[in-house]
Amino acid sequence: MGDIVIRIVDLKKSFDNQKVLDGINLEIERGKITVIIGKSGSGKSVLLKHIIGLIKPDSGEIWVDGKEITKLSEKELNGIRLNFGMLFQEAALFDSMSIWENVAFPLVERTRLKKEEIKRIVDEKLEQVGLLEHANKLPSEVSGGMKKRAGLARALVLDPPIVLFDEPTSALDPVMSLTISDLIKETQRKLKKTYVVISHDIIGMFRIADKVAMLSGGKIIAYGTPEEISVSKNPDIKEFLDASRIKEIGGQNEKR
Amino acid sequence: MSIYSISSPLRKFITELGLAGLMFFECVLLAFKRPLKINYIVKQMEFVGVKSLPVVFLTGTFTGMVLALQTYYGFRKFGAEGLIGITVALSMTRELGPVLTGLMVAGRAGSAMAAEIGTMRVTEQIDALVVMSLNPIKYLVVPRVVASFFMLPVLTIISDFLGIAGGYLIAVKLLDVNEGAFLNRIYKYLEFQDIYMGLVKAACFGVIFSLVSCYKGFYTRGGAEGVGRSTTEAVVISCVAILVADYVLTSLLF
User: What distance in Å separates residue B109's CA from the closest CA in chain A?
Assistant: First the structure.
């Protein structure tokens, strides 16, 4: 086993008597892409928001870099959060700011860098995601895929050691899905950071994942490499894989 | 006694009051903490103040005009037309100026605040701030409350002046009330305190409506429908709270 950066121990959370997370145990390795797969409504987003302290669990522990974060105050959590970047499901760009200002925002607010330096970094990140020519547009003026790419640039702009992705390819056409997942893979290979992705897009994610965890019924029912998961005999996994027609993709991968 | 033995609407009310109180407390603390975010405050001042001018202009003028018309009807019966000026002036500065400005700005700017912050909540923009280790209260609530606190008195002064001017227009120019009597009594009987206390009330109304609106927006749940609900509640609660606070403040201040 590699170096563990996030360790989740017996995490439980209910909303209005409905159990969403029912004892999650998961260890996420440093410098890898870990994808958490699950159906819509299986509590993936809730799990991700626990990792960054947006939601407090009913019970259980979350260790980030050797620190237990579930009982920290908001002030202490803010210190931990500096290690994180996050790409939200709908990108969550600030509507009142241009794409450029959105990407620059963490640098302006969190660092003491000079203007020229900020400009250099932001332009570089926007170049990386191919948005430089759209930098001055408002989020409402660009497509969903562009928003996600801008959100990705914003999540990466402070070079955080851990980046969380909430459904990075949902609501995108297949081509844009591939573009985004390739972009995720590419930036991760370049920067060697820890990426945690939640998604129900099994096809797209198996292409980029180092590790896959399957979330179902509030528990992690399988955890392993994409190859291990795709040959699993577990009926829940099989059902999910069949529904996504993963076999075709798996076949192509084997030929390569 | 457990909190759960209290009936649920009452419990909800107490919880909301507590959360809003906490938000107010945090707001006051953060307002004096560096960085002050002056540019955010100035932007909100423009929105709350400058952009409210047309609506304040119209309500102030017409209220003064109708006041003159109504008091003329009453005062003429016992030959007291000369008192119209001071009646309009006192009504505007002590009561109608601050209250009407508060209500109109709550309707205009408060609804926008609740809708904007509510949308930011449901589209996870507030979470995005938190994830960047930035306090959303500091970035979203403080500038709006501070701007409203400063701008409501300014708007009220304008409303007071326009109301008296509107009254003058109707009484003196239309109804032939003696101009000297109208203006003289205002000089003689309108005290600085009447204006000043009205402005104190206005500042309080500014804090009330902006805090209620930000609070409602901040705790929005449930997508577009939730934003609509928050916006409606923000305006209704702001207006009711302004009227209740008006009575309390008036009985305390005067």
Answer: 16
